[in-house]
Amino acid sequence: MAAKTLLLALLAMASSLAMASDPSPLQDFCVADKDSKVLVNGFVCKDPKVVKAEDFFFRGLDKAGDTGKKLGSNVTAVNVNKLAGLNTLGISMVRIDYAPRGLNPPTLTPRHGDPHRQLFVGFVTSNSDNGNRLFTKMLKKGDVFVFPQGLIHFQFNPGYTNTVAIGALSSQNPGTITIADAVFGSKPPISDEVLAKAFQRWQPKSSSSLLAMASSLAMASDPSPLQDFCVADKASKVRVNGFVCKDPTVVKAEDFFSTGLDKAGDTGKKLGSNVTAVNVNKIVGLNTLGISMVRIDYAPKGLNAPHTHPRATEILTVIEGQLFVGFVTSNSDNGNRLFTKMLKKGDVFVFPEGLIHFQFNPGHTNTVAIGALSSQNPGTITIANAVFGSKPPISDEVLAKAFQITRMAAKTLLLALLAVASSLAMASDPSPLQDFCVADKASKVLVNGFVCKDPKVVKAEDFFFRGLDKAGDTGKKLGSNVTAVNVNKLAGLNTLGISMVRIDYAPRGLNPPHTHPRATEILTVIEGQLFVGFVTSNSDNGNRLFTKMLKKGDVFVFPQGLIHFQFNPGYTNTVAIGALSSQNPGTITVADAVFGSKPPISDEVLAKAFQVDKKTIDWLQAQF
Ligand SMILES: *[C@@H]1O[C@H](CO)[C@@H](O)[C@H](O)[C@H]1NC(C)=O
Ligand SMILES: *[C@@H]1O[C@H](CO)[C@@H](O)[C@H](O)[C@H]1NC(C)=O
Ligand SMILES: *[C@@H]1O[C@H](CO)[C@@H](O)[C@H](O)[C@H]1NC(C)=O
């Protein structure tokens, strides 16, 4: 009898399964075109020329959902259906309201009202993990909990007051499978006989059989290609992530071919370098294949100025002459370390994804290099162009604050920086290959991410973090403070491709222009107001700036790898909660990485990049 009651209770639990993972973006963004009749994986893309800041924006997450229905909970989802800019970016957000004794699905961070408001949460592992173990935890305000991809989970408000939670999911459209509905409410129904048989073992035992039966599939998805090839059909008017495929029967060898990489580019322009790119725009056969090639020519003293590729790692070999190369690590790696190397003919060097890098020919003869990039359309973000040359420009106030100089100096620097060529190459996290892989920080073995703890000793605490209700100290110079809950603070995030931040902004506080080399960010304002913006890569009609003034309950997306900022223009504190599509998104603060690396990037490289004299560069470096 008790089992029966428990069965009904469990069936009533709304559990959800999110399987496989989203594809990686193949361009800066691909805003969903809901009007299109064409069906693709996700949505086809709107014409980028008509994309507006509103496409990355949603208003109303401050409003409680109606919890009057029988389960006493209500999920307000901000997915690609409500926020078209999320298409291809692999992330979304939810607000969940729980009435007293209210029960329901996904995610994190209870907040609001008195500190006694609480939430009882749990998830069940798959059949493979020693048979469907249940992990539970009682959460209070400021606590964070992770539900690994695809596992059945629930949340329950055991208290006498309402509870509110904000969650983020690592898919633009995570989907939800409510077990009870799926098993007992399918159309047409699963036959009585099947169900009777399926559940026979269950009644006298525990909940595990039912959960096992309905348990989840957490699997990795194949990267890019889903067929031998998908030659880009440039004639098609349909916009998708990348390009639609040509009819394979008319595909020819020429589609995989381009000529002329033996020809030097003209290095006569001011920086003395020229990049000839062979990407999907030149070889249509590269579509969906995740690779492209470049030839770079450098005149004597020629510079390929600091830049990043938002969607690629680069590997490069010197064919003629010599080349001084370098890249700067993200803020988290002991603060923007500079790695440099003098290359000669035949040498090969790698620029890791998303990191700012440059090449300089210190010799008296021409240099030629051939590089390959791990994207069909890696994109390039020239730091100075993106930061100081966006259209329309980022406000003087934001730039002056970010670079800690006067507005006048910002304007001068702006002109100088327009010349800097910087690039960022970004990747996304690999998909999980098991239910979870809790980071074993004690292990000496170094892998991509962390090695996994023995699952037998994994505890609910491994998926848990406490304290996101506490404001960070905004007293430092920029007036903002980011509290990040990434894999370093929450070991259970390892391999799951998601993390969370709380950002506090004092009045006039700035989170200065930065990028996350491995993640898209989705953010909602909890208190106060926020002026936000991001700048597209060089390829998108030249560094367009998208801005929006956000108020409480608004949601905004910053596409993967793009330079973005947030500024509190008000006279009161602002608080935002964000989620990022990586367990360790990394942050590259543009000003710090360029002017404050250790050791510093040479005067000569920076002076040339910014087209100013070395004294100015020395002065700038002294500011960081
Ligand atoms: C959730 O709340 C919204 C807004 O109050 C309401 O329109 C909707 O019907 C509710 N959904 C459920 C399942 O109760
Ligand atoms: C690079 O070289 C090509 C071919 O000589 C030329 O058309 C192009 O304008 C050059 N680009 C730059 C930025 O100098
Ligand atoms: C952010 O706030 C925390 C907690 O108040 C503080 O320890 C930390 O130093 C602050 N960080 C910055 C960069 O101000």
In angstroms, what is the radius of gyration? 26 Å
The overall average pLDDT, rounded, is 72
* Overall 3D form: globular
The residue fraction in helices comes out at 10-25%
Bound molecules: 2-acetamido-2-deoxy-beta-D-glucopyranose
Number of helical segments with 4 or more residues: 10
How is the biggest beta sheet arranged? 6 strands, antiparallel
Q: Tally the beta strands.
A: 30
What percent strand? Answer: 25-35%
Could you give me the name of the CATH homologous superfamily of the largest domain?
Answer: Jelly Rolls
Q: What separation lies between the terminal Cα atoms?
A: 69 Å
For the biggest β-sheet, the strand order reads: 1-27-24-29-22-21
SS-derived structural category: alpha+beta
Per CATH, which architecture of the largest domain? Sandwich
CATH fold label of the largest domain: Jelly Rolls
Question: How many structural domains are formed by the residues?
Answer: 2
Low-confidence stretches: 1-20, 105-116, 198-224, 414-427
CATH hierarchy class name of the largest domain? Mainly Beta
Notable characteristics:
single chain, 624 residues, alpha+beta, Jelly Rolls, five-stranded antiparallel β-sheet, 10 helices, binds 2-acetamido-2-deoxy-beta-D-glucopyranose
